[in-house]
Design a protein that fits this description.
The protein has 593 residues and is α+β, with helices and mostly antiparallel strands. It folds into four domains: 114 residues, Immunoglobulin-like (Sandwich), CATH 2.60.40; 137 residues; 111 residues, Immunoglobulin-like; 112 residues, no CATH class. 26% of the residues lie in helices and 38% in strands. It has nine helices and 30 strands. Strands 11, 12, 14, 15 and 16 form a five-stranded antiparallel β-sheet that branches. A hairpin with a 2-residue loop joins β15 and β16. The longest helix is centred in the last third of the chain and has 29 residues. The protein is elongated.
Length: 593
């Protein structure tokens, strides 16, 4: 039994020794097949490549195939930064002689006195195919070698739970990409979306698609928060890709001649099944927060004097839909003067969702001394991983006003109380009043009747003509309705486009700021969230407001440029033109709305 066991292990030991010799002194010798499955009417290309020149190359017998071409040799040698790179390849073209599974056995070669062997590989030969690979056009090869996929992190999320969508282009090792451009960007209706621009296209060489080796590149990333329950569709991303496909022809130096073709690919529709948030255990103060959060209420100081100010900060930290819910409001005692809060967002976007903090800062000014408690408040959120509601409660804050007036009748009485004391007379308390005051003149420069007197007297009369001219000027300005509208609209355009103007020259930052400015303008004018609308809905909405077609078309063209800029090169001149056009469109819209 023991002898049989060792005999069974012998092939594995021999294979291990063969593999060990494969990488000795950095030498590699391997076999590559053009495909591992082919029709009986197709051809198979076999390459034996090495990174160091050798002798006595011995190919396998190619059982089950007929050699129709080869061996042909190709050698590549180069020097880069003092380092030599060498490659030598023996190529065979094989024709199957029967259907079935065949093994391309080991080839051997002697390099520097050592024998190296390639690993055997299995090939499956099927029935004849409609179009053999050697008859396929460049378009046919591109069809089989190019795939655009939308990878969704979660196909069944909860309402307002983050879902990432990554658009990835897979392409086989036999082709290369020259260029690509977006034909139609998806519209995320019924989603709150956060785009994550791809600034550098890195090619991954070890990707897998349908179980086969491919290269891949990420083209677009976006995080979605569903705003509606049920079946929601994500429209596809469509691209036009320029592909270089190798042909069977070779140039004078033996290099493969490439054929270029354009191919349109689409990621296809994806459907999400959005689940509603559970009603069981839902807190009364729940405002739609979904994720994982921490909650706190803090004061910048708890001891101060009257008329000084402090900051009370209500803050939520964590990961989730930080921009899509309201923060709870603290119950400030009526004796403290409180101002409208300043809202602050410090949110970072990643493929797992938004992460960071949002806060409201209240400025509080006490008027009287005393101790004033700010009661604890609660914040509730839904945790989609645990599928439970959580409620967090802040600590009570005691504000101690040390100095200042007191409020109420007791305080007033304390400030007006008197203390009576006995009056004692000392000496003679009564004297005669002097009748001679001994006054002397301080000057003879009288104002009444002087030159200054008459100047001040006539000054109002002199100002009457100036007042009349100023009044006429104001009337002229007020009567210029068109001019006033233009000034107001230009001022409004500068207000919304100020951030975009600061980022001129930075393509990604500029078009993100420009798109946000356009949506914020409509949001402010129409009191709606236009970021959730498609361009068609925005066009319909502007048509309802009786905005002329040319102005609407200009607005939609700007939104389209903002989307196209993420995938296409835009010059600084183009950015300046889009900025000027945005200013003009906002001015025209403001006059018509």
């Amino acid at each position: 039994m023991a002898l049989k066991k060792y005999i069974a292990l012998l092939p594995f030991l021999l294979l291990a020794f063969a593999l060990r010799g494969q990488d000795k002194d950095g030498v590699t010798f391997k076999m590559n097949l053009s495909k591992d499955k082919l029709g009986i009417n197709e051809r198979l290309r076999v390459d034996f490549s090495m990174n160091k020149d050798g002798d006595n190359f011995n190919p396998p017998d190619f059982s089950g195939f007929r050699v129709v071409m080869g061996p042909s040799q190709s050698i590549s040698s180069s020097w880069v930064n003092g380092v030599r790179s060498f490659s030598k390849t023996y190529t065979y073209m094989l024709q199957p002689t029967a259907r079935g599974k065949f093994t391309i056995k080991q080839a051997t070669i002697v390099i520097d006195g050592h024998t190296y062997k390639s690993l055997p590989k299995e090939v499956e030969v099927t029935a004849a195919v409609d179009k053999p690979s050697d008859q396929m056009t460049a378009e046919d090869v591109a069809d089989e070698s190019l795939h655009l996929v939308a990878e969704v992190s979660n196909s069944s999320p909860y309402l307002n739970e983050a879902v990432s969508v990554v658009y990835k282009l897979y392409f086989s090792n036999s082709i290369s990409l020259s260029n690509f451009r977006a034909l139609d960007n998806p519209k995320y209706n019924n989603f709150w979306s956060q785009d994550m621009p791809v600034t550098k296209y890195d090619v991954q060489n070890n990707s897998t698609y349908n179980g086969k080796p491919y290269r891949s590149v990420v083209l677009k990333r976006v995080v979605l928060y569903p705003q509606k329950i049920g079946k929601l569709e994500i429209e596809p991303l469509s691209l036009e890709v320029t592909v270089d496909v190798p042909t069977n022809r070779r140039d004078f130096f033996g290099g493969r001649i490439m054929s270029q073709t354009n191919k349109t690919v689409s990621a296809g529709n994806r459907t999400l099944d959005v689940k509603p948030l559970p009603t069981e255990g839902k807190p009364a103060n729940f405002t739609g927060a979904v994720g994982k959060f921490d909650f706190s209420v803090t004061a910048s100081k708890t001891q101060l004097n009257a008329s000084e100010s402090l900051q009370a900060k209500v803050e939520v930290k964590g990961k989730g839909n930080l921009k899509l819910f309201e923060l709870p409001k603290p119950a400030i005692p009526s004796a403290l003067e409180v101002y409208e809060p300043e809202h602050d967002e410090n949110v970072r976007s990643s493929l797992s969702g938004n992460e960071g903090s949002v806060s409201d800062s209240y400025t509080i000014v006490p008027s009287y001394r005393g101790k004033y408690p700010i009661p604890s408040i609660s914040f509730s959120y839904f945790d989609p991983k645990e599928e439970k509601y959580r409620t967090l409660t802040s600590d009570e804050i005691l504000i101690n006003v040390l100095q200042g007036p007191t409020s109420g009748s007791d305080g007033n009485a304390a400030t007006t109380s008197t203390h009576r004391q006995a009056v004692q007379t000392v000496g003679n308390q009564f004297h005669f009043i002097k009748l001679d005051p001994n006054l002397t003149a301080v000057g003879t420069d009288y104002f009444f009747g002087s030159t200054r007197f008459y100047l001040w007297l006539l000054l109002p009369l002199m100002l009457i003509p100036l007042a009349i001219l100023f009044g006429k000027k104001r009337e002229a300005i007020a009567s210029d309705v068109v001019g006033n509208k233009v000034k107001k609209a230009n001022k409004l355009a500068r207000k919304y486009l100020s951030t975009a103007k600061k980022t001129l020259g930075d393509k990604v930052a500029f078009y993100i700021a420009l798109e946000k400015a356009l949506h914020n303008y409509l949001k402010a004018k129409l009191k709606i969230e236009t970021s959730e609308f498609s361009k068609d809905k925005i066009a319909a909405l502007l048509a309802e407001k009786q905005v002329d077609g040319s102005t609407t078309e200009g607005f939609l063209d700007l939104l389209k440029n903002c989307e196209m800029a993420r995938y296409s090169p835009f010059s600084e001149v183009q950015m300046q033109q889009d900025y000027d056009k945005a200013s003009e469109v906002i001015s025209l819209l403001d006059k018509q709305l």
